[in-house]
Design goal:
Elements lengths: L2 H12 L6 H16 L2 E5 L6 H16 L3 E5 L2 H23 L5 E3 L9 H6 L11 H9 L5 H22 L13 H4 L22 H10 L3 E5 H9 L10 E4 L5 H8 L2 E3 L1 H11 L5 H20 L4 E2 L5 H20 L6 H22 L4 E8 L3 E8 L3 H9 L3 E6 L9 H6 L20 E5 L6 H4 E5 L13 H14 L3 E4 L3 H14 L4 E4 L5 H10 L3 E5 L1 H6 L9 E4 L10 H12 L4 H18 L10 E5 L3 H4 L3 H5 L6 E3 L2 H11 L4
Parallel strand pairs: 1-10, 1-11, 2-4, 2-5, 3-4, 5-10, 12-17, 12-18, 13-15, 13-16, 14-15, 16-17
Antiparallel strand pairs: 6-9, 7-8, 8-9
Helix pairs in contact: 1-3, 1-4, 2-3, 3-4, 6-7, 10-11, 12-13, 12-15, 13-14, 14-15, 19-20, 19-27, 23-24
């Protein structure tokens, strides 16, 4: 038996688990991918135990070959789960099998660690107070302090904690910090662009970020996130230590996370803030000109349509070009002195304004520029990459053998859509046992799930309902929702394509089912709503995209998942529409490649909320008849778990009633 198989068996035994064929097949395929250098897309359904499925071969590689393996997750939450649960279990198993214990480290982006320079040299919010942080916190908690004193208490507590971390040689990781707001954390952390660098910073020898990177360089297994992987790809491999293999968990979110990391924003308030920060070191004319650019940008945004900007003669690119030229002069003037740290940071902030303005002014074919508006922030300009496939292909797959894994990678019954989105072409795919032709060769593997979806769940498609329209939910659909919730006696997670639809359904069900507790996203913090939903089985929770992927509630609390409509991208989403058009222009099918693939992924994630363990039973109710009437419906259905399907609403109601012992 190979070491990875022995390690997996030992780890499963240590947690008193049972051998799972899918988990074993996954570990075998990951080990093979490392050996032959072929990229691997592996779909591991809920309940497979995929973390140990890739950790066992990864750690076997670390021990046997002395190589470093990087794991990239979508969220800091999964990083924490790996760090505190799965990796210690796997390391114990490695030591048990090999007698060796590799080092593991967690590596996050710069702003997740406190900055000693910002903490020690920042503004003294507490300068007028004779109280310590505990007294200020007490005053804030009892409502005796104003907003400034509350923030002051928060920052004082954070600064005290930062000093404790420095004294004990810790990393000052945000996850370990005292309770704080984003505003409070900004007083003790620093954006990457404004970092002075180890050599110039007076506290460089104690830098927490450098300490975390040093730990990563000393480790054989490094766990990071998609955002830092994106930064590493965009900046020539400088963010992560050298590694021979890469595992991307939650890979269904990779494109979205990489896109977010490569997206820039520009607002008048940001320009004004950076300009004011630079005033001290600019001559009067340049300072005035820099400040005036905020108004120039504001006017251009006001004159722009809330959509994609494609014409160079439009107000926004013209204003961005002016801002680019002025900010370039400001960067040049600020950069003439390098021994004033505040000035160096102001220059870095101005350089960031220059970079974004230049990118918007270019209107490059590889970018999408658009304007949005919000009630709180007003108008803003955004620029994002048209796609990230080229970046991933050239800077990730060309450099490192990569395994991508998720519960939802096979869309429409094939891996090709997910592969294409990350830069792996259909022509690059090879079959099991075939020799790779180049560095982009890849294989796909679906190890299934230990769940018997056909026995545990029903997919009910409400074929009799009218297709969803743009004018809100119709009466028949609302009545269907109420009847299903009545049959389930609560125990329902409602996934809606819009906040408006969720609120409309909640209002209707509260009226029709007055004895039922109906919670709706926006009623309270999402964490509080999900806590109540988990703790109170008869509760109903309605929400939007935050719930499609982020809720894990096994057991009778969730026996009915309602999906109001197929979650196609919004028709006013400039980036998705631009990607669709680009595929159409290249002779492909933009609707299927972009819109249907996006919908299939979300549907698979949403329907996957129902069955989280082998004892779970229930119904997924799809209230959009297009799943069975439209030509693309078969593609979408092929992306869902293999539930037993019906279009008869009475069967769904009867099944829910039986679960409650009513029939």
């Amino acid at each position: 038996m190979a070491d990875h198989a022995k390690i997996l068996a030992a780890a499963v035994g240590d947690i008193h688990g049972e051998a799972r064929p899918g988990q074993q097949a996954m570990a075998e395929s990951v080990a093979e991918a490392f050996d032959d250098g072929v990229h691997l897309l592996v779909q591991a359904g809920t309940g497979t135990g995929k973390s140990l499925g890739y950790l066992a071969p990864a750690l076997a590689r670390c021990v046997g070959e002395g190589e470093r393996v990087v794991i990239a997750t979508a969220t800091l939450a999964l990083q924490a789960q790996l760090a505190h649960k799965d990796i210690p279990t796997a390391l114990d198993a490695v030591e048990e099998v090999t007698g060796k214990r590799p080092k593991a480290a967690i590596l996050k982006g710069r702003t997740n660690y406190a900055c000693l320079y910002r903490s020690r040299q920042g503004s003294d919010l507490d300068q007028d107070s004779l109280l310590g942080s505990e007294a200020l916190a007490d005053a804030a908690a009892t409502g005796k302090g104003d907003d400034v004193s509350r923030l002051g208490a928060e920052v004082l507590a954070l600064r005290e904690w930062v000093e404790e971390e420095a004294e004990r040689g810790g990393l000052a990781d945000r996850d370990d910090a005292p309770t704080h707001t984003a505003r409070g954390w900004s007083q003790v952390s620093i954006p990457s662009r404004e970092c002075l660098g180890v050599a110039a910073c007076p506290f460089g020898a104690e830098c927490f970020v450098e300490a975390s990177r040093e730990e990563a360089r000393d480790a054989q297994l490094v766990v990071t996130n998609h955002a830092l992987l994106a930064i590493n790809a965009m900046h020539g491999g400088t963010a992560l230590p050298e590694h021979s293999s890469l595992i991307i968990d939650e890979a269904h979110e990779l494109v979205s996370r990489i896109t977010t990391a490569a997206t820039d924003e520009l607002t008048p308030s940001l320009v004004e803030r950076v300009a004011r920060r630079a005033l001290t070191w600019l001559d009067d004319d340049l300072a005035t000109d820099f400040l005036d650019q905020a108004d120039v940008l504001r006017e251009a945004l006001d004159e722009s349509e809330l959509t994609r900007i494609t014409e160079a003669s439009s107000p926004l690119p013209y204003a961005a070009a002016q801002l680019r030229d002025v900010s370039r002069k400001a960067v040049s003037a600020l950069g003439k002195v390098t021994d004033d740290n505040e000035r160096v940071q102001a220059a870095s902030a101005a350089k960031e304004i220059f970079d974004v303005a230049e990118r918007i002014a270019k209107l490059a074919e590889a970018d999408v520029v658009w304007v949005t508006q919000s009630d709180i922030m007003g108008r803003a300009a955004y620029v994002a990459p048209l796609n990230v496939a080229g970046l991933l292909r050239n800077q990730v797959f060309a450099e490192t053998t990569t395994v991508l894994t998720s519960a939802t990678l096979s869309l429409g019954g094939t891996f090709e859509p997910a592969a294409a989105a990350v830069g792996l072409r259909a022509a690059d795919r090879i079959e099991q046992g075939a020799e790779p032709s180049d560095e982009f060769a890849w294989r796909g593997l679906d190890v299934g799930s230990p769940f018997d979806y056909g026995r545990q769940g029903i997919l009910y498609v409400a074929k009799r309902l009218p297709p969803p329209g743009r004018d809100g939910m119709n009466e028949a659909t609302l009545a269907e929702i109420a009847q299903l919730i009545w049959a389930a006696e609560g125990r329902t997670l409602g996934l809606f394509a819009s906040r408006r639809a969720a609120e409309q359904a909640a209002e209707y069900c509260r009226r029709e089912l007055p004895k039922q507790t109906i919670l709706c996203q926006g009623d309270a913090q999402l964490s509080e709503l999900t806590r109540r939903f988990t703790a109170e089985p008869e509760t109903v929770l309605f929400g939007t995209m935050s719930l499609w992927q982020g809720v894990d509630v096994p057991g009778e609390t969730c026996q009915l998942v309602i999906i109001d409509k197929i979650p196609f991208p919004r028709p006013d989403d400039p980036l998705m529409q631009a990607r669709k058009k680009a595929v159409d222009d290249a002779g492909g099918n933009g609707f299927m490649s972009v819109a249907a693939t996006h919908a299939a992924l979300l549907l698979a994630q949403g329907a996957g909320r129902l069955i989280r363990r082998s004892e779970d039973r229930g119904v997924v109710a799809m209230l959009d008849p297009r799943l069975v009437t439209a030509r693309y419906g078969s593609f979408l259905k092929a992306s869902l778990p293999e539930f037993w399907m019906t279009t008869d609403g009475d069967i769904a109601v009867q099944a829910l009633r039986r679960l409650r012992g009513q029939e």
